[in-house]
Each structure stands twice: as structure tokens, then as C-alpha cells.
Amino acid sequence: MFRRIDDSSSPVFFTFEGKEIAARAGDTVACALLEAGVTAFRASVVTGESRAPYCMMGVCFDCLVTIDGVANRQSCLTEVAQGMQVSFQNGATNVQP
């Protein structure tokens, strides 16, 4: 479904649910996860159904994940970083001050 037009940038490795994923420098977490075939990023607060990115521009909040222990991060706006640990987010999570 997804095909990279220019594949010349350096690889960046991060994990999602303990699985190592290769991305390219400059990719967002959402883009890298979708390219890796991940179809569920979080569970709905109301119904518990799986959710995934919808708008890819930070408006809908369907792409929320936990990154390096910090919940409620918008994966479509967060650039991947070497060694980043990303995990599925279950329902609502309180934001730490």
C-alpha cells in the first residue's frame, strides 16, 4: 500500500510493542508504523475498538500512542528517533504534569 519515492536517507530503528521497526530519518511515527503494517495504534476510550491514524495532520487524535513512557503522544506529529520505544495506548491515560 505504501511505497517510498526516495529511499536514500539513513535508517532509524525504534520499537513498537517490543518489535524492532526500521524507519527513515524524517518519518513520523505514524508513517513508519503504517509502512510496517501496524493497523492499530490505540483502543477507543468509549468502545475499546482499535483506532489508527485518520487525518495525519494532528486534528483527530486517533493516532495517540505512548512514546518513551509518555502517554497521549500524537504519532502523526512526532518524528521517529533512534531507540525510541513506542507502545499501543489502551483508552484514556492521564497526562503527567
List low-confidence stretches.
Answer: none
What can be said about the biggest beta sheet?
5 strands, mixed
- Give the strand order, joined by hyphens, for the main sheet: 2-1-7-5-6
Q: Strand portion, in percent?
A: 25-35%
In percent, how helical is the residue content? under 10%
The number of strands is: 8
Query: Whole-number average pLDDT?
Result: 90
Tell me the structural class.
mainly beta
Question: Secondary-structure element sequence?
Answer: EEHEEEEEE
Distance between the termini: 39 Å
User: Which word captures the global form?
Assistant: globular
Number of helices: 1
The radius of gyration over CA amounts to 13 Å
In short:
With 97 residues, the chain is mainly β. The chain is built from one helix and eight strands. It has one helix spanning 29-35; strands spanning 11-16, 19-24, 42-43, 50-51, 64-67, 70-74, 85-87, 89-90.
Any overview of this molecule?
It is a single chain. The model has no long low-confidence stretch (mean pLDDT 90). The protein is mainly beta. It has one helix and eight strands. The strands form two sheets. A five-stranded mixed β-sheet has the order 2-1-7-5-6, covered by helices on one side. The protein has a three-stranded mixed β-sheet with strand order 4-3-8, with no helix packed on it. A hairpin with a 2-residue loop joins strand 5 (64-67) and strand 6 (70-74). It is globular.
